[in-house]
Inverse folding.
């Protein structure tokens, strides 16, 4: 029972084998319930997936049709000009690089630190291990609030600083719990025999624990990458310099001011002769939707990897 | 006792101390009359002035009450429907077509992985005045002028609950699905031998097995009752729904970043954190008392 009540998704989450259905002779009421269940789940699945689908087909349909709201179930007059056009918006490429950069660097460091701390917190002879473990975990439940946090970051000169995206995320209590639980489930003899063979703490960590922990570290990596990619609040609070804007922040701005952007892109394109047909002329809607797809795409690409953990 | 092993983790503990514990020092701003850019050292000490100011006149009391009402309303709705993921998992498990079940599970977890900004962008595309829903309604002749879903201020609690549910329902169900996998098959066999119908075996076997998980999650949710978070409400707020969408976290943010009243907002955020900790520990104590195990 104890691991069922635990909040940490253990191996259970990954095994995902649904329970063998119990064979009960189906009565009419049972059948009706079945139909109802199927219908409700189908409906909810549709509600979950349709917004993504709808935006996607709108970005590749003729912009005049999509602006009128005519594209509902299928794309019409398919074209991909929108995707070339939005990258002409000044700052978008840069924001993409910032998002990508913070995701790659942040994830690497978080995974490394979680692995190391998760392993170190299993070392029973560490000085005051239980205290430091609690010191780490309790931050999951308690924080000073965003304004004191903001004032701290400002006093550390971490406003308008790329490091602000990275440093606070390195020590992540939840991921540390995940790794620690995993390490505790591996046989102790592994570490003991290595230590008898003369391996030190670090050697055991790099040579033995890291390779063993690969599955859990993959989980941590995916979660932390999604967190980094999705982060919005830190940009909102700490960044005023447009050079450090992330894609999420840019998207938020675009939703509020897309009309001026579409004018700008259309003006830029007006010089080239091939442009300005109604179907590819940028509208407020087309810009906003296209950027949405660009921001959501990495999540959709990484999503199949999640399936392994479901 | 190995001090050396501690020294290995010391750099990380310093990081943690800097970003999780040092901000607590920021609480002193609540006791000073701080207006940037004048540094704190030159700001006058005002004692509890800001705490008093929260309740000094009717207007401020009303405003704070409204914010607290919103916080309770929206947290309360989430709490009221906190059993939804459990029911979702139970009924999903009843689906015998494996492919369909897998499909539903996959698709419904997807929204959990996108940010609130993206959720807002989807919401905007669907429900803004030129969005798809309004387009459809107009096409079908239901309405003449667009319905302003996003500017609506009367049903904000409900719509915020709906978006939160849309985003997290499928994902939250996973924990329960895992728990169902762990239920001993012989329990179902025994129920069947006793002539239980499908609904009866759900009621007498599945549900009781999931309740411990449910209670732990419920208590954690209770403990973070005041912490609705900022992002969801920030992206959905506009000048029309501002009064009914402001939860404590958003109110604190708007006060400081919008109005520059750092000291007041620190005072509120300090009170909020303190109440949250008291809540957490009392619920933890309650859990120990009632169920014999602590949750923290």
């Amino acid at each position: 029972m104890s691991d069922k009540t635990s909040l940490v998704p253990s191996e259970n989450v990954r095994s995902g084998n649904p329970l063998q259905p119990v064979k009960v002779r189906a009565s009419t009421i049972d059948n009706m319930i079945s139909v109802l269940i199927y219908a409700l789940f189908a409906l909810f699945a549709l509600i979950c997936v349709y917004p993504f689908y709808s935006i996607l087909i709108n970005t590749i349909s003729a912009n005049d049709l999509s602006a009128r709201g005519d594209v509902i179930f299928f794309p019409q007059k398919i074209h991909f000009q929108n995707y070339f056009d939005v990258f002409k918006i000044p700052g978008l490429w840069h924001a993409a690089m910032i998002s990508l950069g913070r995701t790659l660097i942040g994830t690497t460091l978080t995974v490394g630190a979680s692995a190391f701390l998760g392993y170190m917190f299993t070392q029973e002879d560490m000085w005051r291990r239980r205290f430091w473990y609690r010191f780490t975990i309790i931050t999951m439940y308690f924080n000073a609030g965003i304004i004191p946090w903001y004032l701290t970051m400002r006093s550390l000169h971490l406003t308008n600083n790329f490091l602000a995206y990275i440093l606070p995320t390195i020590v992540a209590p939840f991921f540390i719990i995940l790794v620690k639980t995993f390490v505790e489930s591996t046989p102790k003899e592994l570490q003991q025999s290595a230590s008898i063979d003369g391996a030190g703490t670090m050697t055991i960590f790099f040579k033995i624990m890291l390779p063993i922990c690969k599955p859990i570290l993959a989980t941590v990596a995916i979660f932390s990458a999604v967190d980094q990619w999705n982060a919005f609040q830190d940009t909102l609070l700490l960044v005023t310099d447009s050079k450090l804007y992330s894609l999420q922040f840019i998207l938020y701005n675009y939703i509020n001011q897309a009309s001026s952007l579409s004018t700008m892109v259309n003006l830029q394109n007006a010089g080239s002769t091939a442009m300005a047909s109604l179907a590819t002329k940028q509208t407020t809607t087309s810009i906003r939707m296209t950027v949405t797809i660009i921001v959501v795409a990495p999540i959709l690409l990484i999503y199949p990897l999640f399936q392994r953990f479901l | 006792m190995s001090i050396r092993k501690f020294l290995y983790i010391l750099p990380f503990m310093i990081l943690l101390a800097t970003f999780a514990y040092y901000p607590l020092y920021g609480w002193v701003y609540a006791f000073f009359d701080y207006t940037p850019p004048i540094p704190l050292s030159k700001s006058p000490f005002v004692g509890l002035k800001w705490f008093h100011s929260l309740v000094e006149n009717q207007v401020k009391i009303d405003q704070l009450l409204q914010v607290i009402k919103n916080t309770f309303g929206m947290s309360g709705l989430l709490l009221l429907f906190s059993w939804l993921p459990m029911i979702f998992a139970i009924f999903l498990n009843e689906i015998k077509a494996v492919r369909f079940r897998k499909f539903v599970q996959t698709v419904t977890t997807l929204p959990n992985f996108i940010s609130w900004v993206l959720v807002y962008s989807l919401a905007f595309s669907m429900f803004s005045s030129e969005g798809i829903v309004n387009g459809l309604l107009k096409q079908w002749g239901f309405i003449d002028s667009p319905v302003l879903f996003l500017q609506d201020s009367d049903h904000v609690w409900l719509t915020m609950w709906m978006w939160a549910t849309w985003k997290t329902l499928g994902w939250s169900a996973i924990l329960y699905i895992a728990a169902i996998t762990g239920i001993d098959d012989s329990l179902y066999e025994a129920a069947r031998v006793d002539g239980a119908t499908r609904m009866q075996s759900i009621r007498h076997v599945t549900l009781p097995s999931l309740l411990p998980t449910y209670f732990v999650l419920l208590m954690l949710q209770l403990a973070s009752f005041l912490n609705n978070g900022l992002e969801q409400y920030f992206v959905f707020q506009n000048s029309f729904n501002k009064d009914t969408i402001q939860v404590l976290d958003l109110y604190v943010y708007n006060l400081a970043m919008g109005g520059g009243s750092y000291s007041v907002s620190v005072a509120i955020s300090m009170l909020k954190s303190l109440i949250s900790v008291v809540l957490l520990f009392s619920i933890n104590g309650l859990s120990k008392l009632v169920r014999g195990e602590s949750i923290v």
